[in-house]
Write a structure and sequence with these properties.
Length: 178
């Protein structure tokens, strides 16, 4: 079975999991970092085991603030693959909703230090958001868009808004859907 895996490598598409790409094309780790230095964090074994396992390349593009078409094109070229047409994704660009208000923040979590120490914020965030009610908000601060975490909380019935503060600082507001 492992022989088949070595013969048939993972196709690089927006849906490819980051860990699958890195396992099949370890040489692309440096290319990924070249495309967006934020991916240097994948050298941390803990983040690699957590974020890389749950993030697709589409989510990685969001995290790295790189257009998905550019990311896939550069990775495929470096892997010696033919180019494919990848539609631009503008779904991440949203205007600030009326419900986003700093005064309604019940809980805040600045995940910068935890992330630097290889601690993924998902466990803490998914536990703490259960304590917000009504119009109360949860505020998560990170050095990148936490795309896999956003998908998880949205699937649990929460609304999310990401505020790009610049200089690799993002505030993610989370609230229960009404």
């Amino acid at each position: 079975m492992s022989d088949i895996k070595n013969i048939i490598k993972t196709e690089i598409t927006p849906q490819t999991m980051v860990i699958d790409m890195l396992e099949n094309y370890p040489e692309l780790e440096d290319k990924l970092i070249e495309i967006s230095p934020i991916f240097e964090k994948l050298k941390n074994p803990i983040l690699r085991k957590t974020v890389a396992k749950v993030a697709t390349l589409k989510q990685a593009a969001t995290i790295g603030n790189v257009p998905i078409a550019d990311l896939i094109s550069q990775l495929r070229e470096a892997a010696g693959m033919d180019s494919i047409n990848v539609e631009a994704d503008d779904s991440g660009k949203q205007s600030k909703p009326d419900w986003v208000n700093k005064e309604k923040v019940k809980m805040e979590y600045d995940a910068f230090i935890d992330l630097e120490n290889g601690i993924h914020p998902a466990g803490r965030v998914t536990k703490e958001i259960h304590d917000i009610n009504g119009d109360e908000l949860y505020l998560l601060s990170t050095p990148f868009v936490p795309a896999p975490l956003i998908q998880m909380v949205e699937e649990k019935g929460y609304e999310v808004y990401i505020d790009d503060l610049g200089n690799q600082m993002f505030d993610t507001y989370i609230k229960r859907k009404n």
